[in-house]
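Structure ticket #2291
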Amino acid sequence: MLLRDVIRKLGFIPEAEQLFALHWEESESLFPASGLYFLNPEYVEGNLQFCGVAEPVRRAVLEVAAQIRGNPELTHLIWHWHRMVFVHREYSYGEFGKWPIPVRILGERAGVFPLLVALSAARMGREHDKHRGIPEEITKDTWHDLVININRYARWHGGKLGGLSSVLAWFRNHAGAGLYRMGRLQFICRPFTGQVSVYRHRATGDVLALSDGGLRFDARGFRAPPDAQPDGVACWEAAFRADPQGWTGHALLPEGVACRAAIRLDRAQWGEALLKGDPVLEMHIPEGGGMTLERCGESMRQALEFWPRYLPDKPFKGFACQSWIMNPEFATFYSPTANFVLYQKEVYLYPHPWGNYGGVSFIFDAPTIDPKTAPRDTSIRRAMAEHLERGGVLRYGAMFLLKEDMPKFGTQCYRGAALFEALRKGGGAEELAARGIAWVTGWAGRAEG
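Resolution: structure written out below.
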């Protein structure tokens, strides 16, 4: 089937042909003569039920699946979408949000089209997990993301049924890529991408992170905007150097800010604990509230048992997360006793690249808001809107927690370390020296080593 004919018959604008063109001919050459398994009523009904989708919604999705089965152009298009998402995994995550959905044919239920694409991977995911011996309940809890997607689509589109095209690539993680939900949290084993290096003191067990070189920070130690130029006051640039005797750079305090003054770590007393590229359990936080310390701690302990048992070929050094929920300023404008603020105190926060509106789409169900007119019907909405109205920004943040420190979860083991008091105050030279740390004055080294 020619792509231009599909575009014309489905009522897409001509420019859509360019969006869908990549690998179209390959998809056509592999189109199953027996039809698409993921549009069969038994497949759709069974997997919707497995994912926890309510019966009235299942019935409506089945109706749309039948409508697509009866339309050759829709059938060929959804097969191409399926292959671009789950076969050509190198295809950019963000591109799917640009793809138009077939409103002319499916009307108000056009959002079900990408929902069925996401569901098409359920067989892959379930078979992969069964082969690994992973408990079905874990797989089922993980696939609850489909319900979350349905609910979010309804909030964003006035109660309509469907799924968001923009998050289609997220379901690659469910289709054999190793994402699993353990209670409140989700985890997937991936290389650590933080722009930091982490060290542990050989005798005391203290943990300290240094910034990568070349990163820019503002006067308070947060990541500066990308266009900010270093001036030594409002914006400065970190440097880092490694040599046979140790490491020189800028300490990152576990509350998520960088120190302007440079320090040096003695290699005889410190060892590398987590570096870029090391495997970690990347943590994700599905919507739903109730992010208590107890539930988060239990999720992380489950993960510590789950991975060695079912995925022993994927060792890891700890946990990591990059999210608006790790915004280090939440305690100052929201509530110091909020669940996620309490969670932040149990992990090592570090500055994450600049962002003005982190979390807005999740909290307000809109990509942007006007702080003056944004709804303030919940405490978090009110706090975020007022913060923005005062000229504040909603930062992203990041964290790590090393596997060996998990038994100390609940004790604020990173923030409570004595060495950070000296680093915060810019003093304590003798106390730091006893731990193999020295202040470095007049150092302007560039990123090396």
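Closing remark: Confidence is low (pLDDT under 50) at residues 445-449.
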